[in-house]
Amino acid sequence: MPASLALAALLAGTALEDAPKPRPALAERFAAQVSLSSAASPAERALYDEAVRLMLKGETGRALGERLLAAGVSVAVSFSDLEDKGGMAGFDAGAARVTLSRSVLSWKPASGSLRAAEVLAHELLGHVLSHAEAEAAGAGWEANALLSDEVNAYVVGWLVSLEAGWRFLDTGAETLLADRAAFERELHWKQPHYGALLEDGELADPLGALRARRADPRAVGGFVDSLSERLKFLESRPDVLASLVRRRSSPAGAAFAAELAARIERLRLLAPPLPGLQSLQPDGA
Ligand SMILES: [Zn+2]
To answer: What residues pair up with 186 in beta bridges, in sequence order?
Structure first.
């Protein structure tokens, strides 16, 4: 209703029954869709609440938080004793699970909550969101097989923590900003699951790329298992392999690549100067 009509209705004493109700705040709508397990301890709940608040504070977290809600996915979050990672995400039809490592509970509260916000953003606004959006576009499995999905999740986490007040640049972010290809090559050997992910440039020949990685001297133990499992699956599913190859030139693939590139440029803008350069800054800068 135009303002003049609303005023006329008010002056006439008419109830404005058709006036739209104000939209609940993002945090309130977020809590209705993303919930922490009731088994969480009071300390875990306090950390989670603060992490969510910090995550939704900055521009990146707010924009992606709105997209997560718009995607309609519901998420169950819980804490666990994860050994070698800060968090993980899993998917069932229409629902997602995010697990956070309890290790961050031992951090000093101020930095611990920023770290938890980063990990939560990585899993939730990185992996869960991209999975939900790719699935809606009919390409859920493919998106999860891509290294760019992992790179995106890292960038989202770093952006969220920098926007929330974290003042340090992760060493991985340093490498990414200096040489993205080098960061991606390193990422493959960070954990077995990453070993089986495909770089965009490897999508022309996924099987060849995975076989070459399995033949690399660094491919031992869990890396061999992960690579062999992915190869076996793709060899048995020519349909999935074909859709993976098509992903490179698909509109969804191109849109994701462009969005990630823009996000990396934002990270470059927000990145604090490296410690060696900080002493060169004039006082008060
Ligand atoms: Zn990840």
So the answer is: none
- The secondary structure of residue 74, as a DSSP letter, is E
> How many CB atoms are closer than 10 A to CB 209?
15
Of 85, 86, 60, 272, the residue nearest 166 (C-alpha): 272
User: Which runs of consecutive H residues, i.e. helices, occur in the chain?
Assistant: 3-11, 26-33, 42-55, 59-70, 109-121, 129-136, 140-144, 147-163, 171-178, 180-188, 192-195, 206-214, 222-236, 238-247, 251-270, 275-278
Three-state SS for 99?
strand
| 15-44 pLDDT per residue, tens | 556 677 778 899 999 999 999 999 999 999
Contact 31, 96 (CB under 8 A): no
Tell me, in angstroms, the distance from the centre of ligand 1 to residue 154's CA: 7
Q: The whole model's pTM is what? A: 0.87
State in Å: Cα 153 to ligand 1 middle.
6
pLDDT digits (tens, 9 = 90+) for 246-285: 887 888 888 999 999 999 999 999 998 766 555 555 444 4
Domain range summary for the chain, segments of one domain joined by +:
23-273
CA of 36 to the centre of ligand 1 (A): 20
- Tell me the CA–centroid distance for residue 79 and ligand 1, in Å: 16
Calculate how far, in angstroms, residue 217's C-alpha sits from the geometric centre of ligand 1. Answer: 24
